[in-house]
Structure formats: structure tokens, C-alpha cells
Amino acid sequence: LVGLAIGAQLLLWTTGGIVMSWLPIEKVRGEHHMAEPADVPISARALPPALREPLAGRAVLGIELRHGLGHSLAEVRFADGPPALFDATTGEKLSPIDERMARAAALADYAGKARISRIHLLSGKEETPQEYRGPLPVWQIRIDDGEGTRLYVSPNVGRVVARRNDMWRFYDFFWMLHIMDYDAREDFNNLLLRIAAVFGAIMAASGIGLLFWRVHRRDFRFRRRRSG
Q1: Which long-range contacts (CB under 8 A, 24 or more apart) does 4-8 make?
Q2: What pLDDT is attached to residue 164?
Q3: Alpha carbons 42 and 53: distance in angstroms, whole number
Q4: In the 8-state DSSP scheme, what is residue 181?
Q5: From CA 192, how far away is CA 144, in angstroms rounded?
């Protein structure tokens, strides 16, 4: 029974390897629809004067300046809380971004013509699909492109943080079978996989050993018959 279970898992490992080797990873990740950055980053040599007051007294870990959403943006990472988005010119805090800005961020990230079929703010784990494993809340934006593209835009930083599509879901199913993490689908070092890998290696080694033993015995008997 154990040998049958390990054999079935070996088949799943092989099948998963075939699927993952044949599917182009850039299409699985949705990167073939990702637009090239068109804006020139702002020089970050000094903190913009407009941000000095709103950031006063906060423990700032880093600031990334960029153009986007019709603003000169400052993405600020804090030591004591989630990141936030500011207008680098006026100092106005833009996050959490609203639906209009989430749409703009998604369309700016998507290359080519796209029509948004649905946009929804996901706030709780119970309403969030398993395909998204990042921080909440997050804007889920569905693109009507025939590939089931779904973009996830962070309301805190105003950018796409995850790209999913139907091919990704198919790939992820076989990835789950491959690493034997049937819950989070992320742990490549889980105990079940380790046990199966050890038993698989034992079965493979014993099979090879048995093959050589059988071949050796047949060869020995054949020689005895000839000598006799």
C-alpha cells in the first residue's frame, strides 16, 4: 500500500514537471501583458520639502519616488506601520487609493487594450481567493481579455502587487501536487514532501538494486548451463 501511494506520488511529480516545463513562466505570471515603465524616476537625492511636515516624527525606513497616477509620487516605508503613498509635490497623502486610482494603476500596468469587467476591494480572508496571498486590503481588478487576467492593486502603494490568470490557476494546481502543500501551496520544505521524497528515493534505489540482482542471477545461471 505504501509502495502504491509513493508510486502515485512519483507519477504526480513527473506530470507536474511536464506541465511546469511546457507552460511559459512569463505567461503563467501574466508578465506578457505587463506594460514597460514609461515614466522616468524622480531623483531621490533629498527628501522633498513638501514631505518634511507629514513625515515629521515618523520612523521612515525608505522612500521611493516615481511618477504615476497623474502625480509625482513618494512611496514611503515606515518602521511602525504599513507603507503609504504621498504626492511628492504637495505632501498630500494619497493612500489608501480609491477605485478611480486603482483602475488607473491597473490600466497603466496592463499592456495593450483592456477593458475592466469588475473591480472589488477585498478586505477579509473569507472573501479573498486563495490565489492571492499578500497583505489585505487589496483591490482585485478583472480584465476582460479572454485569459481571465486578474490584477491585484495595493491601496497603500498604488501599484500592482500580483498578477493572476487562468493559466496561473492551472499551473498552481500542479505546483500544489508537486510540492505536496495542499493548504498554502508555498512550503517547499513541508514534512509530507520530505517523507515522500525519502521513501521515493528508497524505492528507486531498491528497484535499481533488484534489477541488477536479477540480471546478475540470470547471467550466472546462463553461464552455469553453458559450462555444464
Answers
A1: 6/196, 6/199, 6/200, 6/203, 7/203
A2: 94
A3: 20
A4: -
A5: 39
